[in-house]
Amino acid sequence: MTIHNGVGFKTLLAEANADVETITIETLQKTIDDDTIVVIDLRDIRELQREGQLPGALHMPRGMLEFWVDPDSPYARPIFQEDKRFVFYCASAWRSALACQVAGRLGLQNASHLEGGFTGWKEAGGKVVAYKKRPK
Q: Model's pTM, two decimal places?
C-alpha cells in the first residue's frame, strides 16, 4: 500500500474550514460589486468555459495559487499585493477552503472563501456570466 497513516481529505477540509473565514452567498451577493473585493475562481478552465463564472471574478488555477500570491515568486501577480479583500471559490467549497488556508499561510490578509461554492451560488439564484479571458 502506498498510502499509510495519512489524514484524509475530510480531515484536511475540516482543519481548513476551522482555520479560515467563510463568507455567505448572501453577503457576497450584496458586496460583489464593491471595488475592494476581488473574487477568485479556482476552478479548472474547462469548468469556467462550460458553466460560466461569478461576475467580475478573476480566474486563478488552483495550481498557481502559491506562485501568484507570493511576492517573491517570478509569477507573482500585483493584485495580491493590493489592499483588497479576497474571496476564493470553487465548485463546492472544498478547493477554496484549502486554497484560502494556504493563502493565509503565505501571508495574504483578508482572505475568505465562499460558502457552498459555485454550486451554492447558482442554487441561490446568483448571477452567472460567460467566462471571458481577462488580461493579466
A: 0.92
